[in-house]
Fold SEC14-like protein 1.
Amino acid sequence: AAMVQKYQSPVRVYKHPFELIMAAYERRFPTCPLIPMFVASDTVNEYKSEDEAIHVIERRCKLDIDAPRLLKKIAGVDYVYFVQKNSLNRRERTLHIEAYNETFSNRVIINEHCSYTVHPDNEDWTCFEQSASLDIKSFFGFESTVEKIAMKQYTSNIKKGKEIIEYYLKQLEEEGITFVPRWTPPVACKSESSTSHTRRPVSPAINIPDSATKEGLNNKEILNTSSSPSEPTAGTPDDKLDADYIKRYLGDLTPMQESCLIRLRQWLQETHKGKIPKDEHILRFLRARDFNIDKAREILCQSLTWRKQHQVDYILDTWNPPQVLQDYYAGGWHHHDKDGRPLYVLRLGQMDTKGLVRALGEEALLRYVLSINEEGLRRCEENTKVFGRPISSWTCLVDLEGLNMRHLWRPGVKALLRIIEVVEANYPETLGRLLILRAPRVFPVLWTLVSPFIDDNTRKKFLIYAGNDYQGPGGLLDYIDKEIIPDFLGGECMCEVPEGGLVPKSLYRTAEELENEDIKLWTETIYQSASVFKGAPHEVLIQIVDASSVITWDFDVCKGDIVFNIFHSKRAPQPPKKDSLGAHSITSPGGNNVQLIDKVWQLGRDYSMVESPLICKEGESVQGSHVTRWPGFYILQWKFHSMPACATTNLPRVDDVLASLQVSSHKCKVMYYTEVIGSEDFRGSMTSLESSHSGFSQLSAATTSSSQSHSSSMISR
């Protein structure tokens, strides 16, 4: 299989006139002590025009490639010969270099093109550009080895190229040569013509092959500072990257990394309709795929399509977050860390994630997170200018003080996972560091649910501190200056981040409202509603195969008071008969109602109670989980809660009469969601889960906890 490798250099600028650079360049021949592999070169062909403006010279160069002896033996050669053809045009002030291999030319095709031209904005400076391709058709079964050797040799020579010119410039200077006159046409009366020629406008490089260049080079520095972030001018099709710009704004890249960036960028300019992302953003996608240009192009294109569909480019200018978010979303930007990265502070433990999701739906929350990320990109760009070095990611500080079961609300976790997924796909390599502070005992549970969705590269950047460890050695002070440590972490800096707090129930949107929205949100698909009648509880069956699984539940009591139970049975209940007209088959528009526990079953013989009954009042939200101890069948039950009546009086009868007149009074409504998490989803041990649960008994007076089964439910009013 043929392998083609391509290389395209950035523009390298020498702040010296073309003629002086040429004098330095010529000193490389016939041999050059700085390139040990360049053993010799002989002139094969030479042509000079009469006026000496054109000088073409073709050399045969002998290279001693640094390759394993065995490989040289198999190949049967000691040296590799290249043909290099240099075309100097003194009038245009250009030098074009074409090189190709003569040895093994039927097996390996190497082509290189270099050019020295005058800088379009300064005629006393010189630009250098280089492109090459390597196509290995076959090499005695050693194709990939040869490819690696060739790439290694080539990239090391690229780095040397600049040093060599600078070395000879210095040598010239030591010999007192700091100026080489420009070419002038040989005319009898020289004076007038020479003036006309030095004033000659600089012509753009003309006959460079397509891969090497489009017209001249814009000065990216000027372009970058002048354009405001919203203007699309940052990527005009003709502009090119120069080496100094890359170093200043994008960082230290290897030659092959620079080449990938330049080629991907060029591909976008040629094929992508619409706004081309900034260089630093293209670079993030390359980094996320270890500079595999095809993989990076694929994820970048998906992201560009996504941005267009969701109008993400305009989110900062056009979208105003709803008031609920501004009041209750406990996150915000706060100065920068010690590396100059923008710092985002999130008081997750103080934030009512469940309330936010219920009040806003997932879409608005996602959109808000996107606007935070867009702002992050903008701040990175800003900090790059301010600090004088490339800053392409931000640091996130997450304070978990206050984290509890409410944060493990599964739809909330699901929303979080979807948000993480979208951010990972469209903002790769933007998280420089994640500091997680004051992690409580419940944290391992959340972490095991979330961590499989996080990219390995990203996960390496997480630092987790329990309790007050962040105040000790290796803590926060290593990453953030003392002056800006927020007040709520014991620092002196006033932090503007909202306090969070519980979102009032009055702001929740009902299932009906959510259903009426254009976007069908997950809430209606994830939650089921059930009706519970006097004498007709609603029951849900969960079959457990693996003894140590975790059953989680989350429900809202929409109407009436109910009792929640969880039972275990070794045998399967009979599926409910749908045909009979018994109370258990009542299906109403208000949701389903199913009984599973057979009337003849006896508690303690056919099935057992594994949790104490939990009384839940109208309007309450309940979350809980149960670590199963046995395989078999578990039944979750929501039962009508009737006040115990005094047996001797006739009053209940009157109640019954009234109730029958007012049918709805003995109907309760529940919206519930349940899920089983396999023990394999818990990377940590189950004991960490159990200990965190028993720790919840202090969280709320209404918590019931049965010690033998390590379970808890938490009620939030």
Q: What stands out?
A: The mean pLDDT is 79. The longest helix spans residues 143-174. The longest strand covers residues 122-136.
